[in-house]
Design brief:
Layout: E1 2-4, E2 11-13, E3 26-31, E4 38-41, E5 49-50, E6 67-68, H1 83-105, E7 112-116, E8 120-125, E9 131-136, E10 139-143, E11 148-152, H2 167-180, H3 184-191, H4 204-224, H5 230-233, H6 238-241, H7 259-267, H8 283-303, H9 311-329, H10 338-357, H11 362-379
Length: 405
Amino acid sequence: MQVYLTDYAQPLHLDATQQSLRTPLIDNTFYGQTYQRRCHFYRQRGNYCLDRDFRPAQWSKVNASGGMLRICATEQDYPRESFEHVALVTALHLQKAQRFFVNSTGQDVPSMSLLVMPFFRTIYTDKKGELQQRLMYRNIVYYPASKSLTVLPDHDNFHGRGLWESPFIIAHEFAHHAQFAGRPKWATTLAADGGHHHRLPDNVPKRSLEAFLEGWADLYAFYAEGENPSDIISYPCFGYNRDIANPVFADRSPKTITPDIMAGFYAGTATSSSCVRPNFSDTHTIGAVLAHHLHRIVSFVLHSWDETPSPAVKYRYVHGWLSRVFDQVEDKGSDKDLLRTIIAAIFRAIERELAQRLSEEAVALERTTAQVCALFEAGFPTLSGCQPRETSGGASREGPGDAQH
Ligand SMILES: [Zn+2]
C-alpha cells in the first residue's frame, strides 16, 4: 500500500497486512514507551552508566512498556507532533536511505524496529544509595544490539525543524544500521554502553571505532542526499560542521586531524564547549574530518578513471574500502592507537584499489598513489603511514602542494 504524506512527494510503502506501522524495512514500530534502566554512576570513570563491576550497563537490563504504533491507512493528516506523524516521516526517510544503499552497493540490510517515545529514562543509584533519574530527549539514537532506531522527538529545537525531519540525519542513522549488518560481535560490544551516541571517555579503542563509524555514516548520508548539504546545514550549531563538502568548521578552523588533535581525542579532553567551535574529543567531530577528506580522496581517485562518478558510484567504493577496514580492525579491541591504525588501513585499502585498477600503467599508478598519499597527509598529517614525496610539476593541483608536515 502506498501512502502520500502531506508535504512529501514520494509515497511511503506500508505493509498492508499489518495494523501497526510496518514497511519492507521496519518490522515493528513502538510508541510512547518509557525505558528504564537501573545503573550506577561513578564519576571517576567518566560519569557513565556502569554496573557494580565497572562494566557498561547492558541493554538487556532495559525494561520496556508501551505499545505497537497502529496507523489508520485512510487518515493521513496526523498532527505534526503526533507519534504517528513522526514515525511515518522517519519511515519515509529510512525507505529513501535504504533504496540508495541497495542501488549503490547491490546489498540489502536486515529489517529493523522503530521506536518513537518522548524521552529515555535512566534510573540509577547515587553515592548515598538514593534512586535518581536522568532523562534523554530531543535526540535520535541507533542501538545496534536491538537493531532499533529510537526517535525522541523534538519539534522546535532547531529553528522549528525536528531532527527526525532531516533526510540526512535519518540516512546517517540508517548507515549505522548497515554498518552493523552481519557484525553481531561489534553490535553487542558497542551497544553495551547504552547506545551508539554514548561515549566512554576512557575507552580509546571504542571511541576511535565510533569516530570511524560516525565519519562513515556522514559520508553515506552526504551521498544519499546527492552531495547536497543544504539539509544538514539548515540545522544550526552542528549542521555547518557536519557539511562534508566544507573544508573548515564553523569557526573557520581547518578540518584536519593533527597528532596533537588526536592526542587530545585519545585523552578525552574537551577542546571547546561552544556550539560553533569544534570539540575534538567528540567522535562526531573526528568523524566529520574523516568524512570530508575521504570525500575529497574518493572523488580524486574516481576522477582518475571516470569523468563524472555519481554519488552512488562514489559510495560503492567508499563502502567497499570502509567495510574491509571495519573487518580488519574488528579484533583490535586493545589497540590504544586505533584511530591511526584505521587511517593507515583506509590508505592501504585505496592503495590496493589503485594497484588493481592501474596495474597496466606503472607511471600513472605511481603518480596517482603519490597524490592520494598527499591528500591523506593534508587531512591527517603523519597518520596514514604513507610516504609522501615530490612529484613532477603540475601532477596534481590538490596533491603534494597541499600536504602539511
Ligand atoms: Zn552517528
